[in-house]
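Appendix B. Raw example, untouched.
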Amino acid sequence: MAPSTRDRAVPGPDPTTASLGAGRRRAGIDVAIGVGLGGALVLLAFVTNARGDLAPTTWAEIALTLLGAGICGSVIWFGSSGRAWGAGTIALFAVMTAFTALSIAWSVKPDNSWLAANQTLAYLAAFAATAGLARIAPERWPALIGAVAVAAIALSAWALLVKVFPGSLDAGDQYGRLQQPFGYWNATGLIAGLGLPACLWGASHRDHGAGPGELAIRALAVPAIAILVSAVVLSYSRSAVLTAVVGVAIWFVLVPLRLRAVLALALGGAGALWFIVWALSTPSFNNDNVAAAARTSAGHTFGLIALVTLAVLTLAGVAAQIAMEKVMVGERLRHRIGVALVVLVALIPVGGLVAVAASSRGLTGEISHEWTVLTSPNQGQQRVGNSAGRLTQLGNSRSTYWREGLTVGEHALLKGVGALGYGTARTRYTANPLPVQEAHSYLIQTFADLGLIGVAISLALLIAWIRATLTTISSRTRWASLTADQSAERCGLLTLLCVVVMFGVQSATDWTWYIPGVTVAPLLCAGWLTGRGPLDARVGLAAGRPRLSQRPGAGALLTLLAAVALLGAWVIWQPLRSADALSAASGAGNIRTALSDARSAAALDPLSTEPLFVLSALDSAGHDQAAALTELQRAVALQPDYAETWFELGDYELAHHRLQAALAALNRSLALDRSSMAAISDIVQARIELATSAKG
């Protein structure tokens, strides 16, 4: 009988002893690389959390930029000649980076735009580097899948461990939701969800000559899935749950490794269900603001339950793998079960529609009601808290953020208000006092920050990436025409595709792409899909390497790359140097030293108003009122659309009883931030003083 499509997609142990040994050696290298890269992603997550602390974020961006440039240089030097797969996508990413940096020129908050440009440059370096690695080492795709799995499992396990030892690991966390290590629950839930396709692949793939180590990895996928699913649900993040469901569904539809995967998912899901049921039924574990002693006691109990359950799941995973190695399922039955699984996945939304139609409001009435809840800012946020009940509710404040983002973009239609300018510009159009810096949607944030030009570049980049990805996975090639290695690689590439799609789905309703610890992993997957090229493409290391003098084009490109990387790293460093100088000014023992440090801070970051505010305060303390006023006027000239600059100027004028000048500045500040109670208070005080002086 001829080999089936299924057999081609999942090659079993077959070849010679030599090929078995080669497969094992390759698998060992992939495991080592995967663990190392996964560890690096974990480190990145811990140092760059949702708070966006400047120092660790800056050093991480510099490292990504230099490392990415170094890898790209290695590709130019060591890579084989031939078509540069994905070059157009990388070029468009570079255009997006350049436009982000260019927006500093018209930004309402240019120092924020500088930081956004720094981050985008680091992302570009990571994306391009991975695309290059896919070219010179295309056989290492399992290592990237492993890295995503390692990072997701480790970070999810840490999030759960924080709940086990709350007093030791995060005594200040009073929320019942999982949010560590990012400090943002949606990011925690998202990274857990991103690991699910990788674990499904790990539980179901079959290498040539799989040894005990590979079998152990497959077995460990079962407890890993339990950890990931638990973290997704216990983060109480609806976007993370949606993302996980979408990613798993797409994986089962696209990847023909369903039988082994569904067994691992069922076993791991059963363990996760036990965790979740216990957690949600224990108020001292899942409620907010619980006394420390009660939280600790519940956490320890959960830890014991988790240890026992994970041990049982590990044994179950081992047993399942042994059974699947011994039991051979016929091609026809395999095909029928696979089709049934795909149909089952497809029926899930159908079942949801049937349930909605059977409700008291009916299908159209229920949809209309939920749409009102979803889009109404008055009903949304008031109905949803931080408890587990939010998982079944649609109401939220997203509609408010999106409306404000669309308003900001409509008033700066072509080029926006500058990267990361949404949070500053929105205050002129709303009296909502809630401080919001992100629009919670990549599309709306891009429209507000970079206008239609930014949206057009993003759309072009997306189309180019889709085209490159379809080429990589050889979308027009039938499974039956692939070799065993190509079939296995396509399964792996489709797994990477699921990770990217999941991140894109979540980014449609959140701002997690600003958190490098979450974003870099799917970015690496996207870069690999871009640069790999067709499965039968002749890529890899060059057979011979001519001297640099014989390759003037490559030499020029390497020189340009090194210059851009070094300049980029230096530019990324400057805001941190300015912040350090400003910190030194605050701790200086005398005014002269403090003034010197503050002037250095202003010179290092000429786009920031913070050094100017400090200089004004120091000049005022030194009784140089003219210089103090000049610094505030410089701040207004630097950022005339930033309410804080006008408020500082108006507050200074009010303190010196120049009431007309104070009112002019304060009214401008209030126009730029309609919710500013400080500006309103100062305006009232200025008017009272004016009225008093007029009576006198």
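End of appendix B.
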